[in-house]
Amino acid sequence: MFPHSETAPYWISGQLNVISQANPRFHSPYHGPNSFRSVPADRTSILDTLYLGYQPDRNLRYNTDFIVDFEETAGRGLSNALGLAGYTNLDVVRNPNIGSVPYLARGEIHQTIGLTSKMMESDRNPLSLATEVPARRFEIRIGKMSLPDIFDVNEVASDSHLQFMNWTVDDDGAWDYAADTRGYTVGGSVEYDAPSWAFRYGIFAMPTVANGETLDWAFSRANGQNWELDWQRSFLRGRHGATRLLGFANHAHMGNYRQAVEHYTQGITPTPEITSVERFGTVKYGLEWDNEQDITDNFRIASRFGWNDDQEESFAYTEVGQTVLLAADYYGGHWHRAQDKIGTAFVSNAINKDHQNYLKYGGVGFILGDGHLNYGRENIVESYYNLHAWRGLFYALDVQHVDNPGYNRDRGPVWVFSLRSHIDF
Fold first, then answer.
1. Which residues contact 5 (CB under 8 A, 6 or more apart)?
2. Residues of the chain with pLDDT > 90: what percent?
3. Residue 138 pairs with which residues in a beta bridge?
4. CA-CA distance, 325 to 69, in Å (whole number)?
5. What is the average per-residue pLDDT within 227-234?
């Protein structure tokens, strides 16, 4: 809405994102404690953020940024953000009982260490204030942050404010990245950047319990480690393209689905209870392949494949063991709306046999739990039209169709209709 200086040592900006969603009644012969409810419903979520940044010394080769961001959330999501592995609104806090008091979202130091005097242009933004950066460099971040700020950044499918809204479209659902219930954690990352490739590593604090508000500060016993190779290479000559390979390993006080089911079948617990078999030393690991590719000046495509071992408890993001995504967007230049955008995506999520049995026998995760399970892959199609109204004001219409919600063939399909208003200040 307002211009921002390219030369000032400080950064002040903000955003407001309002998403209203509704679902009609759908087929559901039964439901459990964590089911997506089959009755007609509508809910509105509100997320506003204040971005603050400061450059104490404007040395381009050794630039330092101090980043401090505050957020406030309000409203609720459909069914309190339960019942769908690929939930329909990324802005919704995953704990319905958490308050709406403003909180510190990010508080980090971003340090650039240049390895060459050759400079290249960089887009100034709330997380990186430099307009020029060394062509070869290290970038270090320490503090409180969100891992999707650094890893798994896809230009087609990563922004719930101007693109898709579904959790497993904007992020790799099988990447159970370290985070508290609001999506933030504390730790550090180091990244090496060259003109055509980059490699980044980070270690971060895990929550003390699944989807918990409190982080475990003892990194020696609980941590989330992440590695990503980013190859800036196009499959089409003259077009932008990038491919990323990401790996992660989480160490935390987690349970094992097979052990929880065994306790149930042995009569130790009345239903499978993942918390009854939690222990330190448990490791959950996974891999991801991520690609984005420009086809024309206006048309782009994206794809992801994510996998984790899914024997250990889903702990921080959502309950997905495998995910496959195809997405595309198209800018509206041909109908004289250059800043408008239309997008569509298909994502298919799955869980492994041990996780299936856990839900089938009545187990409950922090997202899912119908009380029973007739397993099928959770398949989601999402489409949106993002309308640029004026300056930093945007509106969007969005439709999502979820087949086998919560991996359950007995329920659904679910239609979710959304209206989004977004303002950048």
1. none
2. 96
3. 113, 192
4. 31
5. 96
> CA 64, CA 110: separation in Å to the nearest integer?
6
Phi (first) and psi of residue 22, to 5 degrees: -145, 145
Cβ-proximal residues to 181 (8 Å cutoff; 6+ apart), any chain:
93, 94, 95, 98, 207, 211, 212, 213
Instruction: Measure Cα distances from 249 to 178, 208, 218 in Å.
Output: 10, 16, 16
Query: Model pTM?
Result: 0.95
CATH 2.40.160.180 correct for 10-424: yes
Q: How confident is the model at residue 100 (pLDDT cuts 50, 70, 90)?
A: confident
Secondary structure of the chain in HEC code, one letter for each residue: CCCCCCCCCEEEEEEEEEEEEEECCCCCCCCCCCCCCCCCEEEEEEEEEEEEEECCCCCCCCCEEEEEEEEEEEECCHHHHCCCCCCCCCCCCCCCCCCCCCEEEEEEEEEEEECCCCEEECCCECCECCCEEECCEEEEEEEEECHHHCCCCCCCCCCCCCCCCCHHHHCCCCCCCCCCCCCCEEEEEEEEECCCEEEEEEEECCECCCCCCCECCCCCCCEEEEEEEEECCCCCCCCCEEEEEEEEEEEEEECEHHHHHHHHHCCCCCCCCHHHHCEEEEEEEEEEEEEEEECCCCEEEEEEEEEECCCECCCCCCCCCEEEEEEEEEEEHHHCEEEEEEEEEEEEEECCHHHHHHHHCCCCCCCCCCCCCCECCEEEEEEEEEEEEECCEEEEEEEEEEECHHHECCCCCEEEEEEEEEEEC
For the chain, the domains span 10-424
